Radical S-adenosyl methionine domain-containing protein
Amino acid sequence: WWACTWGSPCHTRGGAVGVSAPCIQRGHPWRARLEPVSGVGGQRGVPGVGPGRPPTLALCPQWPYCRKHCSYCSFNKYVVPAVDEAAVRACLVREARTLLRLGQVRSVTSVFFGGGTPSLASPQTIAAVLEAAAEAAHLPAGAEVTLEANPSSASPARLAGFRAAGVNRLSVGVQSLDDAELRLLGREHTADEARAAVEAARGLFPGRTSIDLLFGLPGQSREAWARCLEAALGLCDDHLALYQLTLERGTALEARVRQGALPAPPQDLLADMYHTARAVLAAAGFRQYEVSNFARKGALSTHNLSYWRAEQYIGVGPGAHGRFVPWGEGSCQREARVQTPDPDTWMKEVQSHGHGTRRRAALSPLEQLEELLALGLRTDEGVTQQRWGRFSPQLPLRAVFGVPGEAMALQQQGWLLLDGRGLRCTPEGLAVLDSLLPGLLCQLQRCWARTAGTGGRDTGAAGGRGTEAAGGQSTEARGGRGPE
Ligand SMILES: C[S@@+](CC[C@H](N)C(=O)[O-])C[C@H]1O[C@@H](n2cnc3c(N)ncnc32)[C@H](O)[C@@H]1O
Ligand code: SF4
């Protein structure tokens, strides 16, 4: 298996709610069992109790609208004739307040406006959400605030408006620098327009402009990808995200490939493209700090790192995903949450209840460790001893992976390292992470079952309470909407 290069957890996609199996191949956030939220106005304002530091977390507001459907995209996005922006803005603000209060959040560490196409929102809307975050919790002056921008809605004037609103980092969806490829992808912009958008972004957000590129397009040759990379290197700032195109069922591009109108990219070519990119970017001074993310001069995205480090985050807006402890309900257990995907329904729910949480599931300690492992191994730092210890104070990393089993075999084969820093992939292992994870997860589950079989005596972790990670035992969702 090839490592899925698409690992941005907050990116929500149509039909993704309630998937029961972990999405290993995509490297998406763990999709735990998500039970529908039943009833309305159930549990009311129980003051926050339980252990733990005052929560700091990341905020992920979603703008679900786009101007056009790209041929490859299965995100949760909507193309509508008109958007009632004032109403959407009011709902984003209200839901952000509700969920920040529910999480008893003291400080927002970073904000990432995703979508859809958030650069279609007005700077006024972006400012309103940031103000709500700053009022409901502290938003430090230096906190990373990123906005995803489509080159079609990234004029210098708009970008300046976003900067004035509080955005300090841009992620520009360039995708390709070849007009024929952009047409194949159904993009609205040309390569020249993408270049102009990146140049404008770099002028306004120097050192803090990232670009997204896709590779593995049907019919794309190794040489065409190498040309694209070279052009991108001449254009980019200090951060790039390279995503291998996933042919998503239900998209126009996937249909054309399935029907034989376009060729499916061969696996060995995809592998070759990925290795080429890694080598080219390394030579240009970029550090591959995650399967698909590259930075130089320390320009790593702290927001994205917070997903891969399994920190808490709140998703706001249609289809947004979150992982946080609803301390405000008296809980001390981390939950996976998904907001209602359809914007109109979501707005009605927010207007009636203060938030549009569609599904929620308490994550068991084992599920949290699985998530920590699958996400942490995507980064070059891996799962550190310290972080593992926070989630699993009584069952050390070495007790799980330092004993004969899959992890040891993978170390001997040169894919994995376990040392005083923690567990991480070698550069070779990072490229094939998806093939390593199933064995590692099995080893974790076996170890967990064994130690749980002792009644938690050896580990304490199976039944342990007291941290957000090891705070509960049930995977059942509780009914009832949280307090507004
Ligand atoms: C929400 S989109 C970006 C923002 C904006 N809507 C745009 O398209 O410019 C986030 C990123 O996901 C990536 N993406 C979307 N669909 C993908 C797919 N099927 N396979 C791989 N990457 C994908 C694209 O690179 C895109 O820039
Ligand atoms: S603009 Fe972005 S979110 Fe919208 S359809 Fe295209 S890739 Fe998807």
